[in-house]
Amino acid sequence: MRVLSVDAMRGLAVCAGEDGERVEVDTLLVDPTGVGERLLVHARVAIARLDTRVPA
Amino acid sequence: MRFVDEFRDAEIAAALSREILGVVEPGRGYKVMEVCGGHTHSIYKYGVDDLLPENVELVHGPGCPVCVIPMGRVDDGIALAHQEGVIFTCFGDMMRIPGSHGSLLDAKAEGADVRMVYSPLDALRIAERNPDRDVIFFAIGFETTAPSTALTLKRAKAERLHNFFVMCNHVTIVPPLRALLDSPDLRLDGFVGPGHVSTVVGARPFEFIPRGYGKPVVIAGFEPLDILQAIQMILRQLAEGRCEVENQYKRVVPWEGNARALEVMAEVFELRPHFEWRGLGFISQSGLKLSAAYADFDAELRFSVPGVRVADPKACQCGEVLKGVIKPWECKVFGTACTPERPIGTCMVSSEGACAAYYTFGRLTRERATV
User: Fold this and answer.
1) What ipTM score was computed for the predicted complex, to two decimals?
2) Contact B313, B344 (CB under 8 A)
């Protein structure tokens, strides 16, 4: 999911999925995220960040 | 969309398919197990198996969390849902899993307050809004979902919530793989490793497979080219006489996993001595329960649950499907008495279940497209 906004104090972010649906995601388990980053989200918890440096 | 479209490219798929053809030994049969139900779903959604030679067979593993829940645990959940004052919450596909006398959906129809949630955090929010009710979350899933439950319990503890409880059915992936490898029923040549579980646990826990059993493992993503490439990497290892854990899903899976998630899980959970799996029986140290520090949130300690072991329906062969011993269409009730609309077995309920994947994408026999 793509990060749209970040609430660093609460460890939350609003993210958009492939279909554009927006959901609140817990980001406490990944390093600080920024707008535009991509997260792997499971049950509304980010469990990994997509490493965009790895060639597709 | 970036990181999606490039993994669905038909030309690259055809090239990978030709590479696979080049590394397989004619006359030799290969059995590769995809551990994760998400892989099974993608394989049939995108027709990945159509791009494999006849002598490469995909065997579907036990990595669908809903599918491996034994009937007794479903009955326990339903018993909790019927208790006075309880709001019982669970993921959507769990609501349709048949227990001995109906499903959670049936319990809801009978008057129990059963609510579908997308996450444990949703259940916590329900508890916050209903301080005079006891809210129970039916937690299922492998190490992918367990961190979400763990984080929610940490929030519940920090908020000093006294009306939020978890019935913990979380399981771990390594013990059932070991059980399968020790099973005389099945001969496998390699494993497509579970991509999302590996984001949490990393690649290291799978090293026992090449080391102890001499089978390659390639951790893979969930797009069709991810899976096809992982199969190519497994077959290449076999052709070159290598046997190791490789990571095809490097864009998401770090070799060491997610240390923070593992730390949270270690705080909130502890291993049960044994846990029952549908079709696989009791497996030592394969299930999680809440640790002593979180015992106040443990629904099984707070409420009375029957805890009775219930045998699977005789007609249902989910156990054999989960062990990869038979294909879904070989089950006696597949597509007739058992359909996604009226499932008898768990594998027909979840979209990650092998039976549901076969049924949904019309795989009623083994067919091959010409590459």
Assistant:
1) 0.86
2) yes
Phi, psi of B277, deg, nearest 5: -115, 140
Phi, psi of B137 (to 5 degrees): -105, 125
CA distance B201 to B75: 30
**Minimal Cβ distance to B260: which of A29, A40, A50:** A29
State the smallest CA–CA distance between residue A21 and chain B in angstroms: 13
Please check the confidence at residue B297 and state whether its pLDDT lies above 50. Answer: yes
DSSP codes joined into one string, A10-53: TTEEEEE-TT--EEEEE-TTSS---TT-BEEEETTEEEEE--TT
Amino acid of residue B34: E
In the A/B pair of chains, how many CB contacts fall below 8 A? 71
Which residue, B139, B169, B144, B181, is CA-closest to B280? B181
- Give the whole-angstrom CA distance, residue B112 versus residue B121: 21
* Nearest partner of B135 among B152, B160, B113, B104, judged by Cα: B113
Q: Which pLDDT belongs to residue B221?
A: 95
Percent of chain B with pLDDT over 70: 96
Question: Cβ A44–B118 below 8 Å, yes or no?
Answer: yes
pLDDT, tens digit (0-9, with 9 covering 90-100), for B64-86: 888 889 999 999 999 999 999 99
Show the DSSP H helices in B24-68 as ranges: 37-46
**Which chain B residues are within 8 Å of A47, Cβ to Cβ?**
144, 147, 196, 199-200, 258, 261
- Contact A56/B at CB under 8 A: yes
